[in-house]
Amino acid sequence: MNQHPTGLTPQSTGGPSAAGYVERQSPETNTRGQKLSKFQWLPKPIRNLLRQTRNGWHHYRQRRALKSLAHGKLKRIVIGSSGTRIDGWVSTDQEVLNLLEKESWATFIERDSLDAILAEHVWEHLHPHEAVMAAMTCYTFLKPGGYLRVAVPDGFHPEKSYIDAVRPGGTGAGADDHKVLYTITSFRDLFIGAGFDVRPLEYFDEHGQFHCSDWSPSDGVIRRSKRFDSRNTPERLAYTSIILDAVKPKTPLDTDAAR
After folding, report:
1. 158-186 mean pLDDT
2. Which end of the chain is more exposed for a tag (fewer CB within 10 A), N or C?
């Protein structure tokens, strides 16, 4: 394997070529906060009413987009989008698709039908038993060969400031709601236990060595990654995530538990 200029070793592994769950996004990926910031001079009750109206409109649009998903050639959804929009994907929030309530999914989506699910920094907001339920929900609605591209903060990241920011109760945005700080081992095992084949894309190992493979953003972009997070430089990986593709096998074994 070749060495990066930073001394980090890439590992080629291959791979497919709940607003309440997600910490606040950076300005370039979230437009909702920007649109309301200009109204800070209004009384708080008025701002709250505007926020409720805005969220209601977004959720109406999400439900409408999900209903039309059945007629699309590619069926791809974003979970816990928090205002993020990606071309070719249907964005959803927790109020529309709840990972812990399969009934909310069954309203819009047939089982074994989704091509892809994208979830960036969602699972760390779930308790361990909820994380298992959420993985099983995704397994149920993905088609055989479909995948979940998922990212969480990396518990093996070597910088103390990073760990202090992302740990449960940490100093970073949204960390007050974090329930778990995963490592590549614990996160991978979670999805293997739900029946997935797992392909790690980016992660630090227990020795502080960074591993990555070439992955295409067209298959699901992760903003908090080596390539796309603006805090990273060639000399320093200030903010990365555990990123993996959890692929539903084309010939699943007994998955009754996951359903």
Report:
1. 97
2. N
For the domain with range 27-258, which CATH number is right: 3.40.1130, 1.10.730, 2.60.40, 3.40.50?
3.40.50
Give yes or no for a contact between 16 and 143, defined as CB atoms under 8 angstroms apart: no
| 125, two tokens | 């907001």
pLDDT tens per residue across span 149-168: 999 999 999 999 999 999 99
CB 251 within 8 A of CB 145: no
- Helical axes 184-193 vs 128-141, angle rounded to 10°: 50
Nearest-CA neighbor of 97 among 89, 109, 105? 105
What is the pTM for the complete model shown?
0.77
pLDDT (mean) for 144-150:
98
Q: Which helix (H) or strand (E) holds 66?
A: helix 44-67
